[in-house]
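Sample entry follows:

_____
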Amino acid sequence: MAPSAQLISQVKPRGATGSRETAVASNKEELGQKRQAEESKNSKAARRRKSIATPQQNAAGIPCEARPAICDLRTIVINLERRADRMEGCQERLQLHCPELPFTRFLATDGRQTQIPLEEVTTSWNTARNVIYQKKRAIRMGWDDLDTYAVRELALSPGERGCSSSHIRAWRHCLEQSGGTERPLLVLEDDAAPTAEFCELLDRAMGALPADAHLLYLGYSQASEWKRELSPELVQSEYVWTTVAYLVWPAGAKLLLDRLPVNEPVDNWMAALAAQDEIKAYCVRPEVVLQADAWNVNSDVAHSDEHYWGPNSDSDIRHSDAPEAMAASVAEGSCFWDIDSDSE
């Protein structure tokens, strides 16, 4: 049998007569069915990857680039040059739950080795505003400890100043990479741990996100009640802690840079701007990025307010920013929290 006839016979449908015309027609039909199945499969994959900016959203004035698909979402991971181990751990966690997310390493400012201008970050801070929101959280959570939150004047640690500087540089990078568009930047710290629902919930939250968004927190610790609820997956924030994961849009980056210096820990400073309605901050609910370790465990940053429970407390802090050097200058301050323990 000729090779061509053998090929035709292999694709005969059951019950075929064996004629060349019937075999060729059947071959075309089967190939067409396979092509349709493949096109359907590709179409579904494309729908999963496409920008979530619908025609209605575009009509409302939201550019497509302002709502990119996850595979097009530019992402940086802030990581100290001397902590390649933390970068490797973060990379493994990202590949586990969001393998399509493109990310690059963004070297953090080392506050112990870099001179950071006072015009960008101050050297001390007053805890008065933060105490207000610590008390609001305590009331919301039903904690009986309102008398323990005291207003202090604290020195910012080198790690805290370096952290602020790193985020300031990230905001500038957001503007540089936007090319004059409203393309956002996803900023991750190297202890970021995406959840299994990362892609699905972020997609839904972005679909409900208003055009005025400056920040979208993917991980946070909630202080006060939400300003408003826009969807089951999206709320507007009044005051949240941590900067483990957030989206910043160029308009938001410009506002943040215009309001320098950062005069408290950077997460408190950003939260205060949202509380004062100077920026529009939203949160994915529930969080889709947690911290790999509990707050202040295995951290590179000595927190100036970490001795809330007193200097002799056993807080399991193992950071590289010399806690013993901080102990002499740090008074009792604010409360510990886990990023995923007190948000609604």
Residues 1-28, 41-60, 308-341 have pLDDT under 50 and may be disordered. The longest strand covers residues 75-79. The CA atoms of residues 37 and 140 lie 53 Å apart.
